[in-house]
């Protein structure tokens, strides 16, 4: 990591006409916090917690995780830190469980499905995250949620973990916000109902694009078909943002799309509340937001939604953005 200070990156991400977007950071390691703060990150929008479980033969215990998570919460306080519960499976495995024999791992036992099949492992993490909530502005979110039953079961596990903490006399924030990642087409379709169950949504476009377009995000043969500006993807994102707002909850987006200068003005047109991206990309994206006008973003979104093909959308967005910046 090279220390590069951009003038203006500590200023709020606010358009010329006064619309404010929260710009948070995606991290995998606590050591990235310095880069987050130097680059003007206003908090952590996605902490990918699986990295503490990789490259070791044992499993981290509750105290080890609670110490690590509490340090992160305390360093970032009063800024927000969103802990995403384990997203193992697909391409990431832990030694103690080994790789599963699955023909289609991306559609297999990953993320929340894996955690629900390993309740003790899940509870350990839920207790550690809850303990960290006593030290800062902590939220929790569940990955790969596909429907109501799954989110209700995950929340029940969180309550169980917190009941245990209570009986052990441990401190935690009983009001810790609970969110879900929207990264499956099923969750998009269920967004208005899911919004009644949680405090916020975070749209995971890396997976949402993969599952919506049927394009394996790790397969180079079809990478040319992995298109963030596909009309189906944009309609899905808009549907989720609208459903969140109708229910009075925040809509955030933490996929790579949040660091794409061609996508961010469209997301702003949708009135996204928050974006979360890699720390190094924050200054450039903040600059784009600070040079934008909400009225123009809304006009761009309207024009984009009138296009029926991804080719047309790509041309329109490139022409508009090149013309402007
Ligand atoms: C996503 O799917 O967009 C996301 C942010 O999660 P990950 O890349 O860790 O799957
Ligand atoms: Mg994902």
Automatic annotation (TrEMBL):
Main EC class the enzyme belongs to: transferase
Coiled-coil regions listed in the entry: 144-171
Catalyzed reaction equations: L-histidyl-[protein] + phosphoenolpyruvate = N(pros)-phospho-L-histidyl-[protein] + pyruvate
GO molecular function: kinase activity; metal ion binding; phosphoenolpyruvate-protein phosphotransferase activity
Gene Ontology CC annotation, any one: cytoplasm
UniProt: phosphoenolpyruvate binding residues: 48, 84, 206-207, 217
UniProt-listed GO biological process terms: phosphoenolpyruvate-dependent sugar phosphotransferase system
EC number from the UniProt entry: 2.7.3.9
Active site: 254 (proton donor)
Boundaries of every PEP-utilising enzyme C-terminal domain copy: 10-292
Binding site for Mg(2+): 183, 207
Subcellular localization: Cytoplasm
Cofactor(s) it depends on: Mg(2+)
Keyword terms of this UniProt record: Coiled coil, Cytoplasm, Kinase, Magnesium, Metal-binding, Phosphotransferase system, Sugar transport, Transferase, Transport
Reported function: General (non sugar-specific) component of the phosphoenolpyruvate-dependent sugar phosphotransferase system (sugar PTS). This major carbohydrate active-transport system catalyzes the phosphorylation of incoming sugar substrates concomitantly with their translocation across the cell membrane. Enzyme I transfers the phosphoryl group from phosphoenolpyruvate (PEP) to the phosphoryl carrier protein (HPr).
Similarity comment: Belongs to the PEP-utilizing enzyme family.
Name assigned to this protein: Phosphoenolpyruvate-protein phosphotransferase
Species of provenance: Humidesulfovibrio mexicanus
Portion of the full-length sequence here: 252 to 576 of 594
